[in-house]
Amino acid sequence: MSFELTYHGHSTWHVTVDDTTLLIDPFFDNAHSELTADDVDTPDYLLLTHGHADHIGHAAQFTEATLVATPEIVSYAGDELGFADAIGMNLGGTVECDDAFVTMVRADHTNGINTDHEYEGGMPAGFVISDTEPTQVADTESTTFYHAGDTALMSEMKDVIGPSLEPDAAAVPIGDHFTMGPMQAAIAVDWLDVEHAFPMHYDTFPPIEVDTDDWEREVQATESEVTTHILDGEESVVLD
């Protein structure tokens, strides 16, 4: 199995698990990407963590993908964006997406969709993507990536996501103001007990401009053995 992560700035990630491609929260109007949505191939699956405009972003340009989101987001995307193929799921559920398994987990945040019609976004979420189905039996051969979505620090990272879903790598928001800042994001990385950590959701708007060095210093202060990666847009990492 091959497992590759590509960062497109803000919270936008392209994940390839063997022959399956997944795009998370497509929003290319950010400081770390030189691409437009037109430059990006349609993935097999499009994953949306919640309904805010900087996460739904350019979803309408990927309607040939299979959408994976809460039933509320799926309803909105079918009515307003033109998605015909979708998997509506909810917190705690796992769905098989060809070569990948996608588990939806909690995120502590708000949710909403700005349209002329009334739509509920459901609960905001994060996604845990693995090349094997999650079980209680530890699997040292599996590879797992956690996209935390927009979230505050929450004990579920320490009590559930880390020990039960066993992510090898995590992307955590560090921009503060709307999500965790550098200090709480560093604690999250420590609690998750991952080998690799990536910052996201920063520098896109003035309120979330931060120095990634601050986050790395906070991670070091936890004495975690994690390797931090500061990726610019379109940079990739292969997980072993």
- Strand content is 25-35%
What name goes with the CATH superfamily?
Ribonuclease Z/Hydroxyacylglutathione hydrolase-like
Major beta sheet summary: 7 strands, mixed
Which regions have little confidence, pLDDT < 50, spanning 5+ residues? Answer: none
Rg over CA atoms, rounded to whole Å, is: 16 Å
Name of the CATH architecture: 4-Layer Sandwich
How many strand segments? 14
> What is the CATH level 1 assignment?
Alpha Beta
Order of helices and strands: EEEEHEHEEEEEHEHEHEE
Distance between the termini: 9 Å
InterPro entries: Metallo-B-lactamas, RibonucZ/Hydroxyglut_hydro, UPF0173, UPF0173_UPF0282_UlaG_hydrolase
Keywords: Hydrolase
GO molecular function, one term: hydrolase activity
Protein name: UPF0173 metal-dependent hydrolase DP106_04470
Description:
With 240 residues, this protein is of the alpha/beta class. The protein has one domain (3-231): Metallo-beta-lactamase, Chain A (4-Layer Sandwich), CATH 3.60.15. It has helices at 53-56, 71-81, 156-165, 182-192, 212-221; strands at 3-7, 13-17, 20-24, 45-47, 66-69, 86-88, 94-97, 100-106, 125-130, 144-147, 169-173, 196-200, 227-228, 236-238. A seven-stranded mixed beta sheet has the order 6-5-4-3-2-1-14, with helices on one face. Strands 7-8-9-10-11-12-13 form a seven-stranded mixed beta sheet, covered by helices on one side. Helix 3 (156-165) links the parallel strand 10 and strand 11. Helix 4 (182-192) crosses helix 5 (212-221). The longest helix has 11 residues, at 71-81. Pfam families: Lactamase_B_3. Keywords: Hydrolase. This is UPF0173 metal-dependent hydrolase DP106_04470. Residues 9-201 form the Metallo-beta-lactamase domain. Belongs to the UPF0173 family.
